[in-house]
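Annex B. Sample input.
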Amino acid sequence: MRILIAEDDDDLAEFLEHSLGELGHVVTCVRSGLDALHFGSVEVFEVAILDRMLPGMDGVEILKRWRAADIVTPVLMLTALGGIADRVGGLNAGADDYLVKPFVFSELAARLAALARRPTIREPQTQFTVGDVTLDLLDRNVKRAGRDIALQPREFALLEQLMRHAGRIVTRTMFLETIWGYHFDPKTNIVDSHLSRMRAKLNFDFDFDPIETVRGVGYRIRTDA
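Annex B, continued. Sample output.
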């Protein structure tokens, strides 16, 4: 899983990062509330571990902002505050689970696995619009400024992933796992070559490219134009 950890206690943060990494998870670890808000908003994670008391912005406020922005990443909240009111406050803000410090790592790992298995209950979205680009899953078509854009199936799938995560980075590994279903050599250029062809079609006769290359990481479709 791709896991975001927001924890300002250096020893605990390093322990979690190391222990979850040993289990095979890909971990991004931040120490402040503002960094947690940023990374949780622009990157895609299967689950997040969020300390309630963080410098800059507390975990409850981060959760409220994520949920208001329709970011549905499952969140396990960590806290030294074990009172009922504290737990209720965190859950009401949008936390999916709550764990009081100190805790046993095996319990935390089991709770994360359970959160990752839990389906998100929401109506399936069949149409996405970002700027002047619209993608319709039912009709399998793409339009830009009302003009039809003919894409091959994998080009369509690449654009779909970008639009599902509009404004957030989609890594090459995520494209490979979602679209090709294989663990390719990370040095392969299969994603880049398909994306290049898709962008050429999407941008033909347009001055602005809505897809941004995040060098060494992946791609995102911009929402600010």
